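# nightly structure sweep
# worker-07 picked up a monomer target from the shared queue
# config: single-sequence mode, recycle default, output format = structure tokens
# input follows
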Amino acid sequence: MSPSSSSPKPSPKSSPGSSPNPSRGRAASSGRPAAPAVPGRPAAASDGFPVSRNARYVWYALLFVLGALVGTAGALVQAAWLPAGLLLALLAAAGLFYGGLRATGTQVGVAAAGGGWLVAVVLLSFGRPEGDGVFGGGVGELLFLFGGMGIAVMCTTLARLPRPAR
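# output follows
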């Protein structure tokens, strides 16, 4: 090896004003300043807002209850006004699931809302021994069940977008 070949050379992609420093990571080169740590405040969530663990658990419980309410209302509406009611029920479920993702910043928010929705729909599908039941066993009920589960899975796999800076 010659002495000239062992010296580090700047890459051709670097600009004239920048120094080729391999220790600089992606966050340092993004141009955004790092958020300062504030003593006494909880750690920031993945989207930048500080959220305590207890607040997240309250959100998850609230989303579970809202999921049960949306599932119950959707089960009644989709059968009453079949084409438009089914669309309305699925849109309400999609709004709840995506809202759970945005409110908590985690996929667990979608799972909590989806769990409440699924529990309500499954319990309403059982019926009673006398023959009473919310679901009559048609195509609309299956579309509501599988469509709602599909929307929950889609919302769970969505990439989390960063919230705008204040």
